[in-house]
Amino acid sequence: MTERRRAKVAELKALHPDDARQLGLGQVSERTLQRWSAAWPEQGIMGLRDGRLTPVLPGHRTITPQVAEAIHAVHAECLHRSRVGMKTKERLIHQFVREKFGTEAEEKIPHYTTLLKVWKEWYGPERGRQRYLRSAAAVDTGGTTVTITRPGQVVVLDTTPFPVKLRDDVFGESISVDLTLGLDAFTHSLVAFRLTPDSDSSVEVAMLLRDAMLPLPMRPDWTPEMEWHYPGVPAALVTEFAGHPVAGRPFFAPETVTSDHGSVYKNHHLVQVARTLGMVVLPARAMRAQDKAACERAFSGIQSLLLEMLLGYRGRDVADRGADPEGDAVWTVDEAEHLLATWIVGVWQNRRLDQYAPAWDPGGRHSPNTLFATAAARDGIALQIPDANLYQRLLPAHFVKIHGRRGVKIGGLWYGGDHPVLGELGSLPSPRSGRHRGKWVVHRDPRDCRQAFIELVGHWHTLPWNGLATGEDVLAFSDARVQQVLREAARAGLTPRDDTELLPVLLDLVGARSPVGSWPSQMTKAERAERAREVARARAAERDRTAPAASLPVAPRPAELVRQNQQAVDAERRRRREAAVDVPLVSPPRLGDGPRKHSLFALPDDESVPQPVQEGPQ
C-alpha cells in the first residue's frame, strides 16, 4: 500500500502545475493519501474533500433580520465607546433585541461562536486601536477598491533603518543609515532607492522621485544580461534616446505617490515637488500597514535575501543582535549602494512573484521585468526623460528680494553679490504677484549651501556664496552647519557686514584649518559621524547636480527626434539581418548595370583604355 501511494504521488507530481491546480491535486502528498484512507470508512466520499479548498458557505440561517439589525447597532455603538471585548458585544446584542423586539426574539439569537464568526465576516478582526477604527469607519469607500492596471499608476514610498552597520567614507567609523525605497505597485519593481546617513530629508525624497523618472545607466562591472531587454522597444533606441547604455530597470513618471505620515513626506517642499512633477501625493491611513503592504514586504524580502548575509547585520531587535555588529562592519556606504543597485537589477527584477501574480493571470509565472514588458506590449512605453534642469527645479524654493550689490539672502547667507545677472535685475521689479509679490524665486540645496540657483528666461544661473574667496576651495557644508555658524558668530559678539567675516568661523567648525581639534584621532565619535554625514550628503548633491548634465542630451526637436528614431530602428534591423547569416552581405547591383555593361554605346573607363607605348631612342 505504501508503494502504491508513493507511485500515485509521483504520478500526480508529473502533471502540469496548471492542470493539477485546476483538478485540486496540486498539494497532494503521501500524508494526504493516508488521511483520506483513514476518513473514508467514517465519512465516505466526503472524507476525500480538501478543507483548504472548500469555500465558506455564504450567509447564516440563524441570523434573522432582528439579530442583523442588533449587530449593526451594536457595531455603531462600540465605535463611539471605548474598546470592549466580544463577550460585552454579545450582551449588548441581547439587550438590544430584548428591549426592541421582545423576549421571543431574544430566544432566536445564535450562540456566541456564531456571533463571533459573523462579526469577523462583516467587520473584520478589528485588531487596530479604537481611535484608528473610528477614523477608518468614517471613510466611505463605497465598497470598492483601487485597481492598479499600469506601471507608474501608484508608487509606494517608505523609509526604514538599514539593518546593516556601515562605515562612512571619510573616517571609516561605524554608522547607521536609512534606506528609502520607491516601489511600483503594479510590477513590484524597485524603481529607486537611497541610502542616507542617520536620517533622510525631503530633498532625498525629491531626488528619489527624480531617479524613478531617469533611466539607470549601466555600470562598468555589470554584465550584458543586466542591460535593457524589454521587447517592443529596441535597446539601441533606448540607448540613443537616453545618451548612454540603460540597465534593465523600468523608468517612468509616477502618477500617484503613497507614503506614510513621516515629516519628510508631509511638508511644503514635497507639495512643491508634486506640483512640479504633476503627480498626486496620497498619504496612507495612520496605523494602516496594509495600505503599503507591498513596500513593507519588499523590506522583508531584501533583508532575508541579501542583507542577512552581510557582515554587520544587526538583527530584528536588540535581543537578536550579535556580539559586536559595529566591529563586524566592513561595507562602506558607497559599496553598499553599489551592491544594492546590482542586486536589484540582477536578482530582484528577475525574481518570480509567487504571491503577487496579476489578476488576468493568477496562476502564471511572472517577475517585475515580465510584468513591465507585458504592460509595455499592451499600452506602450512613454520614453519621457526629463531634462538636466530638473535637479534645480526640485530643490526647495526661496522667495527673496535682490539687495543691490549684496545679492540675495537665504538662511542667513548672501549669494551672488558680484553676479552680473543680479546686477541687471537689481533695478527691475519682479513680475510675480500675490503672496510673494515683487520677489524672485531662488533654489538652494540644503545639503550643499555653497551656491544657489535662479532661473531667468529658461536658463539657470549659479549664484555662489559671497563668503567663498576666489580660487580657494572650501569644504561643503549643509544648512544645519550654517545655523551653527550663525549661533557661534552671535556668541562671539560678531556683527558681520560681509560673509567673508564668517569664513574663519566656518573653517573652524568644518575642521579645515583648526590645528589639533580637527584631527580624526582627536574628534569625538559624534563629531566624526556628523562630519561624515555632511560629506555624504554633499557628495549626493554633487552627483545629483552633475550627473544629468553629463549623461543626458539636450532635448531634440520633433523632426530631429523622428529622424533619430528611424535611424535607430534601421540600425537594429540591419544588426539582426547581419547576425542571421554567416557570410557577409553584399549589396546588389543597381538597376541598369547589366544592360549598360554590354551596351555598344557605353564609353570605356580611362583605366580600361590601353595606353600607347612610347618608343624612345635606342
Gross geometry? globular
Mean pLDDT: 81
Q: Could you state the oligomeric state of the chains shown? A: single chain
Main beta sheet: 5 strands, mixed
Helix content: 40-55%
Strand order of the largest sheet: 5-4-1-6-7
Strand content: 5-15%
Number of strands: 13
Give your account of this protein's structure.
The chain is 40% helix and 10% strand. By secondary structure, the protein is an alpha+beta fold. Strands 5-4-1-6-7 form a 5-stranded mixed sheet, sandwiched between helices. Strand 4 (177-184) and strand 5 (190-197) form a beta hairpin.
Describe the structure concisely.
This protein is globular. The N and C termini lie far apart (117 Å).
Which labels suit this protein?
alpha+beta; 618 residues; 22 helices
Strand and helix map with partners:
Elements: H1 2-13, H2 17-23, H3 30-43, H4 65-80, H5 86-101, H6 103-106, H7 112-123, H8 130-138, E1 155-161, E2 166-167, E3 174-175, E4 177-184, E5 190-197, H9 202-213, H10 235-242, E6 256-259, H11 268-277, E7 280-283, H12 293-305, H13 325-328, H14 333-346, H15 368-379, H16 390-393, E8 397-400, E9 408-410, E10 413-415, H17 420-425, E11 440-444, E12 451-456, E13 459-464, H18 479-491, H19 503-510, H20 525-551, H21 558-580, H22 593-597
Parallel strand pairs: 1-6, 6-7
Antiparallel strand pairs: 1-4, 2-3, 4-5, 8-11, 9-10, 11-12, 12-13
Helix pairs in contact: 4-5, 10-21, 18-19
